[in-house]
Amino acid sequence: MYIYPINTQELYQVLLKEELLENETFCLYFSEKSNVEITELITLLNDNEIPFFGAVFPAVIDNGKHYEEGVVISKIKNVISTHLIQGLDQNEITIPEFDITPGKNYCALTFVDGLAPNISLFLSEMYDKYGKSISYLGGGAGSLSFIQKPCVLFNQGFHQNAALVVIIETQVHLGVTHGWQKLKGPLVATKTNKNVIEEINWEPALSVYQKCILEDSGKVITRDNFFSIAKGYPFGMHKEYSECIVRDPIATDENSGLICVGEVPENTVLDLLKGERSSLIEAAKNAAKISRSAITSQANNIILIDCISRTLFLEEYFEEELAVIGSELRKSTKTESLTGALTLGEISSYGNGNLEFFNKSTVVGLLE
Amino acid sequence: MNEENKIVKDIFMLYELVLSIGRSLDLSENINSFMKTFMTRKNYEVGAVYLKQKRKSQPAYKLVLAHPEVRVPTKNIGANHKLVQMLEENPGLAISSTDENFDALITESGVIEGEFLVFRLKEIGFIKFYSSVRKNKFSKLEINQMYTVIDIFAVSIAACLDHKRLLFEARKREKAEIALIAEKKLHQERTSFVSAVSHQFRTPLAIIQSNADLLNMVLAKMNMHDNIQIPKITTRINSEIDKMVELMNDLLETGKMSQEDIEVKKQDVNIESLLNDINRNVKMIQKDGRFLAINVQGKNKNITTDPLLIGNALNNLISNAFKYSNDSNPRVDVIYLNATVQLQIKDEGIGLSPSEKKNIFKPFYRSDKVQNVPGTGLGLSIAKRCVELCSGTIQVESTANESTTFTIELPY
Asked: What is the reported pLDDT for A353?
């Protein structure tokens, strides 16, 4: 359900009227422009003992449309527990004990501060502890201004540099793809610092990046026009028998380093990628197809996590991406419950390898 | 992809893998860095490193790191495990679920089908990966490509283990040094305390002694010496005071000797002259007619040593030789050897049993059979320390109830 409230009270009144079943919890997707004072809303919901969790994203999705303003309300069944993992700006991250029973199916719906520096480490630690006993689905919250501020919320507050892990007892079917293709490579990230590529091929990263883009497009990328051009030229980290893992450069730092969403380990071999509208939309359709391929009944919830930079790249054609996802899913399930967000990085355990933080990707999750 | 591009891609992949090795001397960090890079790039979902155990009582291989940890419940692998046997024959194995031995190699949870890739890490262990998604198992060419990388990884693990061992030893040494400093401090405090107490006792003892003498003088003046009880009492007082003074002198000497920074003042010493001086004192003290016999073998030669320390040691040993023998004359044999001079102090007295011999140089040790003979039990420990300060050695040979020989050997 989508709403663009005039203030916090209006949203609160809507939530009061939306009755929750005993095993349901509100999942709230806030866009950056929601007219809601989140700390005030938390107090109001806590006063009425209404269970909820959520995050603030650059934009939100409801039933085949995306919105840069307002709030999407979803109800999730069988939430077992909600865990806040703080200190993602630290090098040591402790993963709490999740209350899970072997043999049952669980989904960890994970909203993480997308501008925190140690997201891959956090995912790696979580995967190390729980492996395949849980399916993982989620994305990076935060502002498209790339200014870090509190962005994940539940009944114990509004947090930044943190991840919210919501354990749901359910079978989840996942599909994740991106459709970006190799333009140039291999290149080597010879010097990095977590999510900042400082050097490529032993030269300042920005100058190498500038040169590659100039060769391809004739455009000169600068600090001022960086994101408007860089949204079409991400990096890819190789992974055999799989699409490469994308890293999205979103800004430059004062030392000509490229700030990415997600870490880039030092000496990683990179390809410079380029997107075509058709390949991106085809990939999104494929993600939907993969997720619906194993479903055996109607989905209770459909969660779509799509990268904000796909919207910025596809512009008016992004609605086409949402449309093909919807039509593909409707071959197997009703799609009224399709909600989600446009994120700063995506999380999915699709495939069997290490749990990765994706960029510029489409993740479709069907919760049975 | 054409052949040239594939080679370039392979080289870059190997480059990345090699550079993920040895980025830390911490064992876990080093393994994690390589293992996770390999797993991400090659699309393996489980990785584990097992290292060989040194003790034969333990299982042959122990899991040191796995990712994800929850997928590897097998913490130990025995020498008879199929995997170990196969690795002995082949240092690199790629086994898929269609192969005969696949089931025998399962040490992870949740494995149904897929591929195992295992490499021997030289002689220190092995690394094992599992993937359920790889369409083709590692080819012979890919295994060959990996050998050099794996060898470098094995060397880096060995370096981490050495580093860990050296850190452990350094910490152990540091702890021992701290304990030693504390022990020295305690010893110093104890020595200072004993010295202080000994000094504090001197004054009252001197007063008691002078008062006992005064009492004797007063009795003499009063012509009361016929009362034989009182002189007996004053004699006992003086005798006990003498014992206490001796004990305090020895304690003070022991305290001095146990100090680390004791100054050894070496000079040219004619050992025979030194013995003659000691003998003169013995003659003055010894009232039973016995004397010290000095025999010399070889040509007289001066030695460079501290005459006070060596004199102290010889005085102690010679005085003991008289104290613990009754009828015979103790003797000192001076034997000039090429590099050293030996001084053998011999008596035909009560001798030492083997257990007494073992403890004879320990401070305050006194044999049960000499409890009636005056002494503090400190003399021999002082003598030993004096000799050692002069870079010499002291040894004892003895037969119980027959004889004892102490041999001091000093360099020129």
From this structure: 65
Average pLDDT over every residue of A258-269: 92
A234 shares a domain with A267: yes
Residues 6 or more apart whose Cβ sits within 8 Å of residue A90: A118
Weakest mean pLDDT among A54-63, A310-319, B234-243, B307-316:
B234-243
Q: Do A352 and B37 lie within an 8 Å CB cutoff? A: no
Per-residue pLDDT, A281: 96
Residues B117 and B69 both lie in one domain: yes
Q: Does residue A234 sit in helix, strand or coil? A: coil
* Predicted local confidence at residue A47, as pLDDT: 95
Q: Which of A219, A248, A274 is the last residue of a domain?
A: A274
Assembly ipTM: 0.85
Judged against a pLDDT cut of 80, whether residue A114 lies above it is answered with: yes
Tell me whether A131 touches chain B (CB under 8 Å): yes
CB contact under 8 A, B41 and A133: no
Cross-chain CB nearest to B40 (options A133, A266, A354): A354
Query: Residue B45's domain spans which residues?
Result: 3-166
pLDDT of residue A65: 93
Question: Which one is predicted more confidently, B216 or A260?
Answer: A260
Whether B162 and B174 map to the same domain: the answer is no
Whose CA is closest to B305, among B391, B395, B409, B393? B391
Phi first, then psi, for residue B52 (nearest 5°) are -65, 140
Of B166, B183, B214, the one marking the end of a domain is: B166
pLDDT above 90 for A350: no
Overall average pLDDT of the A314-342 stretch: 93
Least confident of A22-31, A32-41, A54-63, B221-230: B221-230
- Percent of chain B surpassing pLDDT 90: 46
**Which of A318, A144, A341 has the alpha carbon at shortest distance from A228?**
A144
Q: Say whether pLDDT at A328 is over 90.
A: yes
The pair of structure tokens assigned to A352 is: 């069997």
Closest chain B residue to A237, measured at CA: B41
Whether B108 contacts chain A with CB within 8 A: no
* Burial class (CB within 10 angstroms; exposed 0-12, middle 13-18, buried 19+) of B24: middle
Which of B12, B70, B131 shows the shortest C-beta gap to A186? B12
The four Cα atoms A250, A253, A257, A262 give a dihedral, to 10 degrees, of -40
CATH of the domain at B378: 3.30.565.10
Tell me which residue range forms the domain holding A195.
Answer: 181-274
- Chain A CB contacts of B71 under 8 Å are 131-132
Q: Which residues of B touch A356 (CB under 8 A)?
A: 40
- Total domains present in chain A: 2
Tell me the C-alpha distance between B135 and B42, whole Å: 12
Q: B15: which chain A residues are within 8 Å (Cβ-Cβ)?
A: 188, 267, 269
Nearest to B68 among A131, A266, A356 (CB): A131
For the record, the structure tokens of A165 come out as: 């892990």
CA A194, A178, A124 angle in degrees (round to 5)? 35
Task: Confirm or reject contact between B147 and chain A (CB < 8 A).
Answer: no
Residues A186 and A55 in one domain: no
- Taking CB atoms and an 8 Å cut-off, how many pairs form between chains A and B? 78
Task: List chain B residues with pLDDT less than 70.
Answer: 1, 135, 224-228, 255-261
Question: Does one domain contain both B40 and B117?
Answer: yes
Residue A354 backbone dihedrals phi, psi, to 5 degrees:
-60, 150
Whichever domain contains B71, its CATH number is 3.30.450.40
Distance in angstroms (rounded) separating the CA atoms of residues A281 and A200: 30
Which residue of A lies nearest to B33 if distances are taken between CA atoms? A265
Instruction: Provide the shortest C-alpha distance from residue A131 to chain B (in Å).
Output: 6
Q: How many Å apart are CA A329 and CA A321, to the nearest integer?
A: 12
Q: Is A209 helix (H, G, I), strand (E, B) or coil?
A: helix
CB contacts of A269 in chain B (<8 Å) are 12-13, 15-16
CATH code, B213:
1.10.287
